[in-house]
Sequence to fold (253 residues):
Amino acid sequence: MNYKDWAEWYDIFYSSSEHKEENYYTEISKNIEGNILEIGVGTGRIAIRLAEIGKTIIGIDSSSEMIEKAKEKISEKKLSKKITLIIADMLNFNLDEKFNLIIIPANTLLLCNDEEEQTKVLINCQKHLTDNGKLIFNVYYPDNEMINENNNEKFMFNTVNIKNGGRYILYSKNDFDIISQTNESTQFIEKVDHNGNVLFQKKLKVKTRYLYPEDIIKLCEKSNLSVENMSRDFSDLPINQTTDNIVVVAKKT
Ligand SMILES: C[S@@+](CC[C@H](N)C(=O)[O-])C[C@H]1O[C@@H](n2cnc3c(N)ncnc32)[C@H](O)[C@@H]1O
Fold:
C-alpha cells in the first residue's frame, strides 16, 4: 500500500484526533527495556511520543515520503538519537535484532491485500521478538452497521480548522467486499474557504483487509503467536458490539 500521497495530509487529520491511541502505546512502553520496534512508523506520531519519555525506537516504513516527514519532525524536536528510521517492507524486513516490544498501531496490519500477507507480517514480527517479548497491534472492528449501511456512500470523517480561516474536510467512501474481507475506501480531502467555497479537492485510496477477533486468533496461531489479551478501544474492557478498535497483545508460543 503506497502512502506517498498521504504524507502531506496524515498529520493534518491525525493531529486533531483523540490521543487515546498515542497515550496507550506510551503507557505500555514505560517499563520496556531496550529498543522498541514500530512497524509502519509513518510520520512518527507514536514514535516521537515514546522517544519523549526516554525510549529508543526503531521505526520501519515502506514509504520514503512518510519517513521524510518523520525525519523533519524528529530533528525539530531534537530526538534524532532516540529514533532510527529504516525504509523496509513489513512483509519481508530483516533486522539483526530481537525486541521486547513490537507495535503495529493505526490499522497498519490491515494494509495488506489478503490473509497470506497478514500472516507474513506476523511471522516476521514473531521472528523479531525476544522469548518474553510482546507484539501489540490495533485494528478497527468491522461492525455490521459500518459494512452494510455506509457502503458506497460518501460521509464526512473529520474537519480541521485552518489557522487563517477556512477548513480542511475529510470525506470517506467505503467499498466493502465481504468475500475477500476488504474495504477499498476512497478519501476525499477538500480545502474550503471561510465562505464554504471549495478551493481544491484531492482523492486518496486506502485498501484494508479487515479482521474479526476470531481471524486474529487464527492468524496469530499460524504465526506461532498466542493472543494474551484482546480489549476494546485502548481500555481494559472486553470487545463488544460498540468496539471501534480491537487492541491485541500477543506473545511467542
Ligand atoms: C496508518 S499509517 C500509521 C503511521 C504511524 N504508525 C501512526 O500510528 O501514526 C500506516 C503506515 O504504514 C506504512 N505501510 C503501509 N504498508 C507498509 C508495508 N508493506 N511495509 C511497511 N510500511 C507500510 C505506510 O507507509 C504508513 O506510513
Notes: The chain has two domains: 4-141+211-252, 144-209. The mean pLDDT is 94. Residues 40 and 61 are 5 Å apart (CA to CA). The pocket of S-adenosylmethionine is lined by residues 1, 3, 14, 40-42, 45-46, 60-63, 66, 89-91, 105-108, 111 (CB under 6 Å).
